[in-house]
TrEMBL record:
Region (Disordered), start-end ranges: 44-67
Cited Pfam families: Aminotran_5
GO molecular function, one term: L-serine-pyruvate transaminase activity
Lineage, opening ranks: Eukaryota, Fungi, Dikarya, Ascomycota, Pezizomycotina
Matches recorded under SUPFAM superfamilies: PLP-dependent transferases (SSF53383)
Organism the protein comes from: Parathielavia hyrcaniae
InterPro entries: Aminotrans_V_dom (IPR000192), PyrdxlP-dep_Trfase (IPR015424), PyrdxlP-dep_Trfase_major (IPR015421), PyrdxlP-dep_Trfase_small (IPR015422)
Name by which UniProt lists this protein: alanine--glyoxylate transaminase
Keyword Transit peptide (UniProt): no
Length: 463
């Protein structure tokens, strides 16, 4: 749907609601700075109700007017996705919901490009971070070695999570704005046996894109028993991932980024090899909710919610849902599952290759505009630049706390920096999902124009 213009008034309290947590001196989700103005926000400006029309007219959005959210997730959501969350309350084991959940799990196989019946999708209530816990609690036992390819804040977080569960972590870190290279990865793999290697496909803190196909081939050749685990939180549904062809063992992601569904779902895919590693571990998983054994229990321990004796025969909770049979370990979120079902239906209406190509084309156009403004990206090598976001260095003399509120005033929300080494030196522009794929929107053009004008208002002139 087309982006709606923001309210005309420029009341400072309204701007503070939008921008107070996005400047580099107080970025969201980082321990390296603090928020400002936590107790001085005029909440009277917030809408008391948000009535929505269910009109399907392509000329108008049913969403309340709001600044365009162009951070690297959450992203702007399609009307139909949001409206699907208005589904009436229903039991999580009711036939209608179970059918929707089953179709959702099957569609995830198509998104990840896996037809291997031993592969297992998981959709759990939680954020993308829960995917780290799934890996660390189930695939790695205390004392086992894991090689973490370091590309920024989020790969660092994955390493920290693994350590919490007792893994012995070796971090192979690259300078800010780049990634570990294949020769050094090969050297590390040849020196020690690693249970798993983790790679952050797109590190949201730097916009660095890691290549997966050649990496996977290298691991299979040098250390074939090593599990290949991908953090795809900021890549799934905008960067190509061919789960089967590339021989991946795990990809973890979340609902609120390129998939285009509100936050609240941890989404992942694991290979049959990874599932065997979880099932054959010598020690119990160090988690209850994140235990794959609780989501994939034996027949004798499965909670059948049907009087039919064969309901759960030789199948797991997730497998039962995919087979459209009710099953239970912990309560899913029916409303979010409906939203995910709608989002995946939209994604798979066309070949996923077209979606990846469209994101690449939009990214190329945005990155050209960034260069035309005389700005540089944190990821300097074009081959290592993500296609769903851009991390942009600020020019000399321009500060994020000055620039971001001006952008917000123009109806565009970018994100501040989050990488501790360069936190005040850059901003982040998210360009994925409907903002770049819906031809009726002008989000990207408006964002580029607003960035150019905001830089000028901050005194920047291209040399």
């Amino acid at each position: 749907m087309p982006r709606q213009n923001p309210p005309a008034d420029n009341h400072p309290a309204r701007l503070s609601l939008i921008s107070r947590h996005l400047a580099p001196v107080y970025p969201i989700n980082t321990p390296y700075a603090v928020e400002r103005l936590p107790d001085t926000i005029d909440t009277s400006l917030l809408p008391k109700t948000q009535s929505r029309s269910l009109s399907t007219s392509p000329k108008m959005s049913s969403q309340p007017a709001h600044p365009t959210l162009l951070i690297p997730g959450p992203i702007e959501f399609d009307d139909a996705v949001l409206q699907s969350m208005s589904h009436f309350s229903e039991s999580h084991v009711a036939a209608g919901f179970v059918a929707t959940f089953g179709e959702t799990l099957s569609m995830l196989r198509k998104l990840f490009q896996t037809s291997d019946p031993s592969s297992q999708p998981f959709v759990l209530s939680g954020s993308g971070t829960l995917g780290w816990d799934l890996v660390a609690a189930n695939l790695i036992e205390p004392g086992e070695d894991v090689l973490v390819l370091g590309t920024g804040y989020f790969s660092d977080g994955f390493a920290d999570c693994l350590r919490v569960y007792g893994a012995t972590v070796t971090e192979l870190k690259a300078p800010v704005g780049t990634k570990p290279q294949l020769p050094e990865i090969e050297k590390a793999l040849s020196e020690k046996r690693y249970k798993a290697i983790t790679v952050t496909h797109v590190d949201t803190s730097t916009g660095v894109l890691s290549e997966l196909q050649q990496l996977s081939a290298l691991v299979r050749r040098v250390s074939p028993d090593t599990l290949i685990i991908v953090d795809g939180v900021c890549s799934v549904a905008c960067e190509e991932i061919d789960f089967d062809a590339w021989g991946l063992d795990g990809v973890v992601t979340a609902s609120q980024k390129a998939i285009g569904c509100p936050a609240g779902l941890s989404i992942s895919m694991f290979s049959g090899r990874a599932m065997k590693a979880a099932q054959n571990r010598k020690t119990p998983p160090a988690s209850y909710f994140a235990s794959m054994k609780n989501w994939t229990p034996s027949k004798s321990s499965l909670h059948s919610l049907s009087p039919v004796p064969h309901l759960a025969d030789h199948q797991t909770v997730m497998q039962n849902y995919e087979a459209k049979k009710p099953s239970y370990f912990a309560t899913p979120s029916p409303q979010l599952i409906h939203a995910l079902h709608t989002a995946l239906s939209q994604i798979l209406a066309k070949p996923v290759s077209e979606r990846f190509a469209a994101h690449r084309a939009a990214s190329d156009r945005i990155k050209k505009a960034i260069a035309d403004l005389g700005l540089k990206q944190v990821a300097a090598n074009p081959d290592e630049q993500a296609h769903g976001m851009s991390a942009i260095y600020l020019p000399e003399g321009v500060k994020g706390p000055d620039l971001l509120p001006i952008l917000a005033k123009k109806g565009v929300v970018f994100a501040g920096g989050i990488h501790k080494e360069i936190v005040a030196k850059y901003i982040r522009f998210g360009h994925m999902g409907v903002s770049v794929l819906d031809p009726k929107r002008n989000d990207v053009d408006h964002a580029i124009k607003s960035l150019r004008e905001a830089l000028a208002e901050c005194g920047y002139k291209k040399e």
